[in-house]
Amino acid sequence: MCRIAGVINKSISTPSLEAMVKEMCQLLKHGGPDGEGIYSNAENNFVLGHRRLSLIDLSSNGHQPMPYANERYYISYNGELYNYRELKEELKKAGCCFNSKSDTEVILAAFATWGTRSFVRFNGMFAFALWDNITNELFLVRDSVGMKPLYYAATSEGLAFASEVKAFKAIPYLQQKNNNAQVYLMAYGHLPEPITTLKEVKPLEKGTWLKYHIPSATIETNSFKQFSYFEKIDNREEAIGYIKSSLNDAVQRHLLSDAPIGVFLSGGIDSSIVTLLANKTHADLETVSIFFNDKNYSEKRYQDLLQQSSSFKQHQHLINADDFHSHLPCIMDAMDLSSCDGINTWFISKYAKENGLKAMLSAVGGDELYGGYPSFDRMKAALILKELPNKILRAGTNSSSKKMRRISYLSIDSIVGRYLFLRGQFVPSEIAKYLNADETEVWKILEEEPLVKNVDYLTSGNQASWMECNLYMQNQLLRDADVMSMAHGVEIRLPFLDALFINLSLQISSLLKYSGSRKKQLLIDSFKEALPEQIWNRPKMGFAFPFKEWLGDDRYVKSRNGKYMGEYLAKMRTGDIHWSQFFTLLLLEK
Asked: What SS3 string covers 202-217?
């Protein structure tokens, strides 16, 4: 895991570009604390930067930007390839030579051998910039799940890119704000792709490569990998066997590291499964957990239960209200793009670093793929309600009932409307009131983006899964996991989102995958023999904090001049709004 940045601009001198990219790298230093590298190409007014977090091949041979093939190619790379060893052996047979043990060099050799056809063969999380000195072309590439962020701006001046939006502060001509960002933040609790806080800056779409040809200043983009639901496994025992084998293989691949690695253990089903699978081959495995004195939120009991039945080394950290209040300013500053979530990831990544761990496995993806959220039950109702006339759907927008207000979102005729009905924060009437905007304009903004594919052909369960993977997980969980962990120089790896495991999961029939007396019954049954019953036979708690109690503090009204902060604090205390809605308002007032 690292951070990358670069600028192409014909009107700026190379020394000035170098200074600009070095400033970008400095703004990204937290995500690459182990070193910095710069590559300059004066002929093309192009500078490529890199900040390194060393995990594979810790020697200077892994330094970036890395050259290859007599300096024809240069790469600045952020991520991990979990199948790089297999690819390396294949490339050796094709005549490629290697000077390092890093996966970075494998990407270079693969591109030199197979061109853009190499990208679909990478199983991992990655975002990289690859320069070709012969063709004068720069490639930007992002993994098919979107685990690693990559933002860019293509303007008349040229091309600029970086791992985080905050790095663009170093580029004066890209400072125009996106005036619609606050609308999206209030509606979603985060900024959904392709929205950012800067008008000209947007994320590279996942599973996509972009080619920028400097002499002609032309851009070409192509998709190289998109996951699809294709139900063909309908035998339960067969599915369980596949899940056991595939997830175990994924966990073992994700443990590959030359630096200390561990597992985030919440005490829930998914993190317990990952811990047990990792512990099978790593007897010295270390886990990091957080817990609270309030038993309504703490899962310490279940963390201890798993530890008692296994052999891993456990690091547990108590978080109290004083910790929360003292660190909240740092947490909010660490956010690249505002999000009402991610606080837990900031804390647990902080403790991972303090415990000497540089990479951590997380269980994000299990709920999205196997039906762990309430949306899987509620989608059927959403599909029925959305057929009502828009006039009726929008009639409840000013209702005193939160559920009735959110029904109005179903008038947006796509999975976006269903998402906002099931997970939205504020409805357009509330957004307009808070931002002193026109409600009609708010509706127009939310209907324009994000543009998503039509998923009406999917079963209701798979529609919920698609929605959770491509809207909630993509725009909130993965982004939060990346920026909050990298704030401490820690890499988070996600075995549930291993490409081979995703392919398998999307082939299992909906009826099999989402049915049962408990949520994620098929996943539970796949590992029931290894999991203590007390862990799987209990209500889902989620990875949550006592936020309502901690945020319900007058200091968060008195210290800000928000028009409605006092009103919304009172609403949170009475339960009329969720703590995440109040936190969203704090972000707006930041």
From this structure: EECCCCEEEEEECCCC
Cβ proximity of 161 and 129 under 8 Å: yes
Q: Can you state the angle between helices 236-254 and 269-281, rounded to 10 degrees?
A: 60
- Separation CA 495–CA 250 (nearest Å): 5
- Cα–Cα distance, 40 to 108 (Å, whole number): 18
- Which is it for the CA torsion 438, 568, 475, 199, positive or negative? positive
* Core vs surface per residue 477-501: b (16+ CB within 10 A) or e: bbbbbbbbbbbbbbbbbbbbbbbeb
Which of helix, strand or coil describes residue 468? helix
Q: Look at the block and give the residue holding tokens 């200077």.
A: 60
**Contact between 510 and 461 (Cβ < 8 Å):** yes
| Contact between 204 and 152 (Cβ < 8 Å) | yes
Contact, 452 vs 205, CB < 8 A?
no
d(CA 170, CA 26): 10
Q: Give the end-to-end CA distance of the chain in Å, rounded to a whole number.
A: 29
Taking alpha carbons only, the member of 398, 422, 420, 395 closest to residue 409 is: 420
Please, what sign has the CA dihedral across residues 538, 542, 545, 547? Answer: negative
Give the integer Cα–Cα distance in Å for 524 and 538: 12
CB atoms inside a 10 Å sphere around CB 291: 20
Which residue, 207, 149, 155, 493, is CA-closest to 337?
149
Residue from 390, 380, 524, 520 nearest 463 by CA = 380
- Specify the pTM: 0.95
Task: Determine the pLDDT at residue 252.
Answer: 97
Is the preceding peptide bond at 65 cis, omega within 30 degrees of 0?
A: yes
User: What does the pLDDT look like over 35-78, one tens digit per residue?
Assistant: 899 999 999 999 999 998 766 556 566 689 999 999 999 999 99
User: What values do phi and psi take at 560, rounded to 5?
Assistant: -135, 155
H or E, element range at 275: helix 269-281
* pLDDT (mean) for 472-480: 97
Q: Tokens standing for 42?
A: 């004066």
* Tokens found for residue 228: 């699809």
User: Which residue in the block uniquely carries the two structure tokens 């270079």?
Assistant: 108
- Work out the number of other CB atoms within 10 angstroms of the CB of residue 476: 21
Output the CA angle 18-24-29, nearest 5 degrees: 120
Alpha-carbon distance values, 305 to 279, 301, 310, 510, 536 (Å): 15, 6, 9, 32, 12
**How does residue 19 score in pLDDT terms, banded at 50, 70 and 90?**
very high
Q: What one-letter code names the amino acid at 470?
A: N
229 contact partners, CB below 8 Å, separation of at least 6: 458, 462, 465, 466, 506
Q: Which residues are CB-neighbours of 62 under 8 A, at least 6 positions away?
A: 52, 54, 56, 100, 101, 102, 104
pLDDT of residue 210: 98
Strands laid side by side in the 491-493 sheet? 313-318, 286-291, 261-264, 359-361, 491-493
